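Reviewer has doubts. Consider these tokens.
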Amino acid sequence: MTRMKPTLVLFAAAAFAGVAALAQAQEPVSALKGHDANAPVDVVADRIEVQDRADRAIFSGNVHVTQGELTLDTVRLTVAYASAGGIQIQRLDASGGVVVKSPSENARGDFAVYDLDRKLITLVGNVRLNRGESQILGSRLVIDLNSGRAVIDGGPAGVAQSGGRVRGHFTVPKRGS
């Protein structure tokens, strides 16, 4: 098991704060604002390849990442780091059926990038966010961990499952008469 600092798994809760906020016609705010990005991270994979001269490590095959109550599953995870004065992770790239889960929501997409220096998480390609029975479809999700802002784009028409637009389906709680 490999231990790393902040990781891609941070974006699951962030994505779904946007779902609840959109349902109320407000600007989406990440549930991860204030999340401890320095919490320990565990990574399990079938294989790891360290490319020290390129300052990166590649985890492949059934990659499972956990940080607190958040998890990330993917086929491949590339960790880019600087090695001056110890290892400092700069960027995480996940590819191949990326699934991120928190206790209350999950996000899916083809690829994900977490830029630790800028504290930005981006999920692209057939993005689907679910919280309970509510769902948002889009082409790209960007989460700013500094501000807590989550933005979902529809992407080009005919390319993504969203048809070039952001699509949402929200459940409404039963209210008394």
